[in-house]
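Example with several molecule types.
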Amino acid sequence: MDLTYSEDQTLLSESIARFIQDDYDFETRRRIAASEHGLDPATWAQFSDLGWLGIPFSEAEGGLGADPVAVMILMEQFGRGLVVEPYVPCVLLGGRLIAAAGNAVQRDHYLGDLIAGRVQLAFAHGEPGGRYALAHVATRAEACSGGFTLSGQKAVVHNAAAADFLVVSARSSGEPGACEGISLFVVPRSATGLSIRSYGTVDGLRAGEVALDGVELGEEALLGETGEAFPVIEAVTDAAVAAVCSEAVGIMDRMREMTLDYLKNRQQFGRPLGSFQVLQHRAVDMLIACEEARSLALMATLNLGGSAAERRRAVSAVKAHVGNAGRKLGQEAVQLHGGMGVTDELALGHYFKRLTMIDTFFGDAAHHLDRFARNP
Amino acid sequence: MNIELNSADRAFRDEVRAFLAGSLPPDIQRRVEHGLELRRDDYASWHRILYDKGWVAPSWPVAHGGTGWTPMQRYLFDEEAAAASAPRIMPFGVNMVGPVIFTFGDAAQKAHYLPRILSGEDWWCQGYSEPGAGSDLANLRTRAVRDGDVYVVNGQKTWTTSAQWADHIFCLVRTDPSAARPQQGISFLLIDMRSPGISVQPIITIDGSHEVNDVFFEDVRVPVENLVGEENRGWTYAKFLLSFERAGIADVGRSKKQVANLKRIAAAEQSNGRPLSEDDRFQEKIAALEIDLLALEFTELRALSRHSAGEEPGTEANILKIRGTEIQQRITELTLEAVGTYANPYVPEALRDGWNEEPIGPEYAAVAAPRYFNWRKASIYGGSNEIQKGIVAKLVLEL
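Resulting structure tokens for the full complex:
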């Protein structure tokens, strides 16, 4: 057992940190977040040049080896930099689903372009009323001559409007909630019958409500076997949840640092806030929360390759922890900044908003606590 | 980075497991398993068995009789020992005064005391806290005044665990009351518990047990050769010792074992016509506890990995102490909750092995409340958790 970074992993972490420091300061982030699609094409091209778009893919898929620890390192730094680029919906969801469920032709067709930064993807899965039940898919996929017809509604699809293709889950048989009967399709955004109502999110990202109204697709749009997509969806979303938890670790740690700086510099009653014991202990509690989140994110990442049961339990452990501890830490960071903590001017509040919304990503703390309990 | 044990560590774990299976006396194991009282003989026998195997002092250098284990092997040993329901080794000799003696003691002290600590011939207790010096340990007032070849010691120590069993006590005493800072006038003395002028009075804790004591010193004459290191440098040695005391204090293995026990109780208890373990709310409480324990486990494993890679152990021990004890207390709290009304009967005899009467309520019920009450000590001893946070705030956060 060795839970320290290898030399390569340290170098990767440092190179991403350097990128954030040199090319992605908070004003840059603010500008990109305000742009039409919430992503900067030049930055995305830089991600591709640096090889980051290929990190989660094996060499056979055209990637760099699919090391989950490398994804963890990348996402933690993205969290520290509060990066808005759609790495999760495009690469970790859309790209990974095609890699895991698609055939060789489909992988060749999409992944090369994805890794080169030429296409954007999204994953249209959650539905209104489905909350966090992963098998709640009511969108129908009817077989018709030469292909399929999709009809339904998808909720809060990140990166939907910028995506060239959406990976869409739809039910070929059974009722919403059944794991059997779910299929995956690649749908061009330009497909007739597909419409997107796009919006900004409270944490500075882009998402959309996706309506599928009799969208006709050929056979080649189907990823994998009809009705058998659920295990792939669960494995890919689990890996994405672990990655987003690492993003949360970076956010929490950065918020903790900002708060610590504030406690040391802000003078009240003629002395630094940090000289008050009641605040010192709260700063220590924040440190402990960060260390525990980092430990669990690592544990989950290293269990992604284990059995499905081990993976579920590990991923739900970290997601539940990050949901609860992240909420507490976020609130504390704002509180200890006093009035400055609630201003739009300070970066802190933007970290707080992203951390808060991470709890809703494929299941909140309560959902994952329940899932953990049910997977002994 | 990888999560798997390497083949050497797997082989080591198997060796430890086989040793425990073959060498841990079943009656001692049963008492630990059921949370029953352990006698001095239980600790002494297990100490002796580990000593004969050469495994009693993993934290010592090989030259003094240590095992030469890596940090990971020490962790694995603790985990396996807890899983097998082995008693803990009393820490006062092996993990506290032993390291102080082999680090700061003179040749005669090393030659005399270390073999007797290893073999279990000598039992030690710790004379640190005083009625007026708890968290503020440096405020201690027990005086040692040089008189020719002896120090004359007067004062009182308290919360002294197993003083009723000990042959020796290592004491922080004040040798220079006029020093500029309270930390500067303290010395580290080794005192024979049979010395005239020492008396021990039991302190009974809220669970009804006798673990700790008051120790009184009245004109106790201690030979000057029992001073460790230099006079008035005792605070340095005391802090060194505390860093040993906190190592392993997270006690992940024992907590895992206790969580398994809690789950068994929850499966046996009925709630609204079905097992408590199937109650959603109780399930979630256990789940949250298990996640906290996983976080603790991996925080410790990360620290071990850094340590193995050559990094000096930092203040992670303080964090492990805080979280480890909070989790231990949470386990006792949920176990008490799981047991329900049969936590009420207080039958001291039921806490002793060999009590032959019919238990009142389920067999596991009798220890639940005493354990809960007893375990409140964990966030207080070894430097209260508030003191730990103060240390982290100062040394890590530089506040």
